[in-house]
Input
Amino acid sequence: MDSLNTIVDEVLVVMKLRFADARTWRYVISAISKIVDEAAYRFKEDGIRLKAIDPSRIVLVDFIIPRDALTEYEIEKEEVVGVDMEDLAKILRRAVKGDELELKTLEAGRLAVSFLGRGIRTFIIPSLEVAAEELPELNIQFTVKAKFPPATFRDLVKELEPVGDAIEFITVKDEQKIIAKTTSDIAEVEIEASIENSALLEIEANEDARAIYSIDYLSDIVSASQAAEEVIFEYGTGIPCKIEYTLPYGGKLIFYVAPRTE
Output
């Protein structure tokens, strides 16, 4: 009997790519799948992009992998592939240290996901008819920009998560620090982040700023920290925040989160 890998090799392959570290995709797709159920990937000459907005239209996701980040990339023409994000996340959870990731789009609207490590493990899922919504490029004038170690930003959110349902970020320009706080009927918790206490790597603040964001969304987003080399957090008073993860080999994962009004 032919193996699944042999069958994949024999069918018409429309697009093929290979990425050096499958675990990067594992953590990225896991985080995105908590925000959006279905999404459309655009495979273009210059690389891959997924841009989607969650059903409540509070979070916009922008995942970018440039062509240079791929060890192999074969594409005949621009292609859009719709994917059930939870199904893809379940498959990518099987990625282990040392695995490369290979994606192939096959005839009859199927996506082959392969891990190349100790042997080759291949999974095939159907692609979905997902409309690639034309989302605008956002041009937001942020007044605060801070660079965190990824684990520090994740821990900040996770420390506050058990207490309240929102995080208020307060920037004190003159002191070059960010205070993150949450409150509930039971407790109030406050975390101070600055370069001096090593919670921040860099900070640029044009003014004092204050904004509140839902902790549920932030908790989902920080699960991508394991894939990131650094995280840049930008926001301003009463406007959306931008959380940008720099990924290995030049990729980016960006989340825009609308503020809560209280």
User: Anything to note?
Assistant: The chain has a mean pLDDT of 91. The chain has five helices and 18 strands. The longest helix spans residues 22-33.
